Amino acid sequence: MYKVRVLGINGSARRNGWCSRFLKRTLLFSQKAGAEVKLIHLINYPLNYCSGSYSEHPALCHLENCIKDKLNDSFKSLVWDVLESDAIIFASPVYWYSQSALLKTLIERLTSLENQNQFMLRGKIAGIIVVGEEDGGMQVGSQIMSALTQMGFIIPPVGVVYAHRYWKKERIHEALEDAAMLGVNVVKLAELLKYEDWDWIDGWKKYQDSTINNSRKLG
After folding, report:
1. Could you say which of 15, 42, 52, 95 would form a disulfide bridge with 102 (CB–CB 3.0 to 4.6 Å)?
2. Could you please report the per-residue DSSP string of 64-129?
């Protein structure tokens, strides 16, 4: 039986903070569901900022250019962990109502896998964990989710888990249960999709020949 691979990416500067706590809980339950899991702390992978080559010319934004010259950094090794995973859990603290700079830099660099209709991340499962002290948990989760879906990721139900550091113990427990649910659900969704040979980016095109006639009928 195929063994699902789940990658957890901790976007916090703290290796043992709240994001790590929730992420480890999610990965534990992914493991219980039969997956191979790996945890990465982005603080251990120094990344240069995206060079913005897309703005210069869209054709310049691709993986080869994103791992050479001044961008020859940890992304070169990190990208293979991303590509070899079936599901990826992205965890971030809330910094001024936004995701961490660490995680945002990674997501911006992942553009090199999506641009020019490459969509190298198409069909991968993504889960999101956000921890903050103030309002903005779901706001940050939505920001991350919007970018990931445009890259071709698939988000499962209850795919965004968020927690407030100052919640009461009972509410924190509920959030930890959501993290466990996410860990299992990404594995189950990845298993289901292995039996469905479908191209989530270009598959729709096989229906386009009849689009005009069908539109007339519906009109």
Report:
1. 42
2. GGGGSGGG-STHHHHHHHHHH-SEEEEEEE-BTTB--HHHHHHHHHTHHHHTTTT-TTTT-EEEEE
3-state secondary structure 100-111: CHHHHHHHHHCH
Closest CA to 141 of 28, 34, 22: 22
Q: Which two tokens stand for residue 140?
A: 């940050």
**pLDDT per position as a tens digit, 42-83:** 999 998 888 777 777 777 777 777 777 777 888 888 999 999
Q: How many domains are there within the chain?
A: 1
What residue has token string 């069909």?
123
Query: What CATH code is carried by the domain that includes residue 131?
Result: 3.40.50.360
Contact indicator for 62, 117 with CB cutoff of 8 Å: no
Nearest 5 degrees, angle CA 113-CA 117-CA 122?
A: 60
pLDDT of residue 219 exceeding 70, the answer is no
**Full domain range(s) for residue 21:** 5-218
Q: How many CB atoms lie within 10 A of CB 164?
A: 19
